[in-house]
Amino acid sequence: MQRREFLSGMAAATAVGTTSSSAIDIISNSLMNDESARMTASHFGPLRAFGKNGRFESAMDASELDFFPVSLTQGVVARTYDDTRIAKPSVRKGYLKDGYKSDKSMRGKDEWVEVSWDEAYKLVANELKRVYKEHGSSAIYGGSYGWYSVGSVNNPQTLLGRMLNILGGYTTRTLTYSTHAIRAIMPYVSGTDESGALQTAWPVILKHTELVVIWGADPINTNQIAWGVPDHESYIYFRKLKEQMAKRGVKVIVIDPVYNNTADYLNAQHISVNPTTDVALMMAICYEMMKLGKADENFLKKYTSGAEEFKKYLNGEAEDKTVKDAKWASKICGVSEKEIKELAKVFGSKRTMLMGGWGPQRAHHGEQFHWMLTVLACFIGQIGLPGGGYGFGYHYSDGGCPSPAAPVGSSLALASGKAAGSSAFPGLGAMSIVPSSEGEWKSRDNIAIPVSRILDCINNPGKEIDFNCKKLTYPELKMAYWAGGNPYHHHPDTNLMAKTFEKLDTFIVQDCFWTASARMADIVLPAATEQERNDITKSHTNKFIIAMHKIAEPYGEAKSDYEIYSGILKEFGDKELMAFTEGKTEMEWIKHFYNTSKKKGDESNLGMPEFDEFWAKGYVEFKIPQHAYEYVKQAEFRKNPIINRVGTPSGKIEIVSKKIAKAAYADCPLHPTWMEPMEWIGNKTDKYPLNLVSPHPKYRLHSQLNNTWLRNLEEVKGREPVWIHPEDAKARKLKSGDIVKVFNDRGTVLAGVIVTEFVKKGVVRIQEGGWWDPVLEKDGICVHGNVNVLVPNEPTSSLACGNQATALVQIEKFEGELPSIKVFSQPKFSKKA
Ligand SMILES: Nc1nc2c(c(=O)[nH]1)N[C@H]1C(S)=C(S)[C@@H](COP(=O)(O)OP(=O)(O)OC[C@H]3O[C@@H](n4cnc5c(=O)[nH]c(N)nc54)[C@H](O)[C@@H]3O)O[C@H]1N2
Ligand SMILES: Nc1nc2c(c(=O)[nH]1)N[C@H]1C(S)=C(S)[C@@H](COP(=O)(O)OP(=O)(O)OC[C@H]3O[C@@H](n4cnc5c(=O)[nH]c(N)nc54)[C@H](O)[C@@H]3O)O[C@H]1N2
Ligand SMILES: [Mo]
C-alpha cells in the first residue's frame, strides 16, 4: 500500500514541479536504475550513488524511500570535489610559529601551512594538555553547535564530547539556534517541548480541518531537509491539502512578512505582517473574539489557568492601561483593522488548525510568539479536537506524517553522565549519555551555557547571568574546538564574533570545507564527507533504517571524524584510545547499532533481516501502525484534564505562569505581553529605516551546499539576493540586478537586488547561510552577503537567552568596481615556515 501511495505521489510531485514556478524543482533520476548503485543518505534525502575508481561520480534518488525527491540532493555530489575542499591538515602560519601566543588578529589574514596528520595530532593534543593543566576543563569549549551530516557513528559532536570527557571534561551548550525560545518557554506553558512534540496526523487534518493558518512557517521550503533523513512525505500531504482547498473549500491563510514558498504553492490568502509584531496581532484577535462573544469561555475555564487575569490585560485594565483591540494592533503590525476583525470572525467559526513555524521566535522577545499562539488556540477552544488546535512542527522534518516507532539501538555515548551536550541525534539511536566502559569520566560535571551566548561568555568570564529561571556563571574560555558547524555563518553579529574570538588562545575547526569558520581558525582538520565513509542512519520519521555505503575514498588526506579523534586520543595513550573506541572499528559500531536495534525489533516480531542482508539491500522498512494515522494531539487532555493533566504546575495550559512570575524578568513577564522589540518598524530611524528578516534558504541547508552550482539558481552577480518592495526600491532608485550595500552599525554586506511585492513594504529579506567573504585587510565589508553581519547578538530575553534573526538596516546602491569573491576558492598557502 505504501508503495502505491508513493508512486501516485511521484506523479503528482512531478506535476507540481512543472506547474508552479517557485515550487521545488525535481531532478528525479529514479528511472535510471543501475546494479552498481549503492545506498547512502543525507539531510536532503536518501540516495543511491555511483563511485568509480574511488571517486564519487553521481547520485540518483532512492525512490523507494523518498516520496518527493528534491534538487538539493544533487548538491551532495557537487560539493565533494568543489574547490573549497580541505585536502590536508593545515595550520595558520603565525600559529605554527608562536602557538597559542600568536597574534590572533592575523586569523583570516595569515597564510596556511599544510602539515602531516602526525604533526596535527601532536599540535592538538599538546594544546589540549596545556589548557587542561593551566586553566582546567571548563576553559575548553566543545559545545560546537551545527548540523554536520547524518550517520550514527560519525557524529562529529557526540564524538568530540566523548573525546573531551575522556580527557577531563569541557564546557558544553544547551538548546539550539533553531528552537531556543520555543523550547525554553513551552514547558512552562503546555508542559512539553512543543518543537519536538507529535503533531495531529495529516490524515486527520485532511479529513476535519476547515481553516489552516500557517503562521511564520514555510513548510514547502523547510521540509526539504530533515535532521534525520527526510522521506519528504509531507509534500504529498501538502498536495492533498491543495486538493482539499478545491474540493472541500478548505481555507489556508499564511501570516508572514513574506509571501513565502508555501503561500505561493497553495495560492493561500496572505496576511502580510510587520516582522516581530505577531503577538500584538494575536492579542487583538483574542480581544475581538471576546467582543463578538466568540471566545470559548468553557475551554478557558476548564483547561487553562490565568485566563481572567490575562483578559484584564487585553481589556486595558492592567498597568499599561491599553486596550488590545484591532485599532491598537493595526498600528503595530501593519495589518488593517478590517482584516484583523475578519480574522477574529473566521478563526474558530470553522475547525481551525494553527500551524506555527519557528522563524518568529528568532527575535527579541521571541518567547512570546508561541506562548501567545497557544493562548489564541485556547480562545478558539479546539485543542484536542480532530483537526483543531495548534502544532509547531508541520514545517520541520516531515512533522505530522504518520510514522512508526522504530526499534532504535543506542548511538555512541558521550562518556559522561552529565554532558547533555547535543540535542537529539540524527542517527539510528537516541542520544545515550551512559558510557559502556568504566572510567573516571563518568562523573564529569560539565558546565552548559545557552548555545547562542558564546560571545557573551568569552567576553564576560565569571559573570552571573539569568537563564531559564536559574542563575548561571560563565566559565573562562581559552580554546574552542568546532566540528560539524559553522559559527561564522550561524551566529549573529559576525564582526563581533571575529573580534571576540581573538580572546581565545586557540580555535580548532574540523570540517570538510574551507568555510568562513575554517578560514578564521588556527588549526584545520579535514573531515571526510558522509559519502566517503560507511555509516548507518534512519529516516527522521522512523520509516526506514538506512545503510550508508562508502561511495568514494576521502578527498586528499581527509579522514572520518571517528578516525581523527582516535588519532588525537592515541597521543594521550592506549587507555584513552580504548575508552573512546571500546576496541571497535567503525564497521563494528555500525553492526553493533544495527544488531541492538534488531534485538528490540525481534522482541516485537518485526522480522528485521540479518545485518548482511540489510547492508546489501540498503534499508529496512517499518510498517506504520493504524493509530499513527489517527493521532490527535492533546485529545486525552481534552477528554479528561484531571487525569491527563499536562506537565505544568497547574496541570493546565498556563496563560499565567507562576514559575515565570517568580523569576521576575522585566523582559518575560508572567503572561504573554506585547513588548517593543529592540529593532523593529515601530522604532525605525532615518538612518536605518528597513526591517530585515533572514529566513532559511531554498537552495541550501544553512551554509551547506552554498559551495556548489546550486547557488547560481538564486545569486545576483555572484551575491546573495536581497528582496525589496517596489516602493522602497523606487525611493532608492534601485532595480533588480543592482548590487547594493546593506548596512547598519554592526557592519555592511553586499547583496544583489530583487525588486518584488513578495515582501511587505518596509521589509527586506536576505536568507541565512551565505558564506562570509570579508575584506579583512580593508573595511571588513562582506562582499558576498552573510546576513548575520547585520543581526544583533542580544538575547531574546533572560528566560531563553536565545538568538535573534532580524534587524534594522539601510540599503544604498553600490558604486564602483565589484570586488571579487574569494570564499569559494582555496585560501592562500605558504611553504612551511
Ligand atoms: N540570521 C539567521 N541566522 C541563523 C538562522 C536564521 O534563521 N537566521 N538559523 C539558525 C539555525 S535554525 C541553525 S540550525 C543554524 C545552523 O548553523 P550550522 O549548523 O552551523 O550550519 P551548517 O551550514 O549546516 O554547518 C554545518 C557544517 O558542518 C560541516 N559538515 C558536514 N558534514 C560533516 C562531517 O561529516 N564532519 C564534519 N566534521 N563536518 C561536517 C559542513 O561542511 C558545515 O560547515 O544557523 C542559525 N543561524
Ligand atoms: N531548505 C531548507 N530547509 C530547512 C533549512 C534550511 O537551511 N534550508 N533549515 C532547517 C532548520 S535547521 C530549521 S531550524 C528549520 C527552520 O524553520 P523555520 O524557523 O520555521 O524557518 P524560517 O525560514 O526561519 O522561518 C519561517 C517563516 O517565518 C517567516 N518570518 C520571519 N519573521 C517573522 C515574523 O516576525 N512573523 C511572521 N509571521 N513570520 C516571520 C519567514 O519569512 C519564513 O517564511 O528549517 C529547516 N529546513
Ligand atoms: Mo535550525
UniProtKB/TrEMBL annotation:
GO terms for biological process: anaerobic respiration. The keyword Ubl conjugation does not apply. Residues 85-570 form the Molybdopterin oxidoreductase domain. InterPro entries: Asp_de-COase-like_dom_sf, CT_DMSOR/BSOR/TMAOR, MoPterin_dinucl-bd_dom, Mopterin_OxRdtase, Mopterin_OxRdtase_prok_CS, Prok_Mopterin_Oxidored. Its cofactor is Mo-bis(molybdopterin guanine dinucleotide). Pfam families: Molybdopterin (PF00384), Molydop_binding (PF01568). Residues 690-804 form the Molybdopterin dinucleotide-binding domain. Keywords: Metal-binding, Molybdenum, Oxidoreductase. GO terms for cellular component: outer membrane-bounded periplasmic space. One of its GO terms (molecular function) is molybdenum ion binding. SUPFAM superfamilies: ADC-like, Formate dehydrogenase/DMSO reductase, domains 1-3. It comes from the Bacteria. Belongs to the prokaryotic molybdopterin-containing oxidoreductase family. This is Molybdopterin-dependent oxidoreductase. It comes from Campylobacter californiensis. The lineage of its organism: Bacteria, Pseudomonadati, Campylobacterota, Epsilonproteobacteria, Campylobacterales.
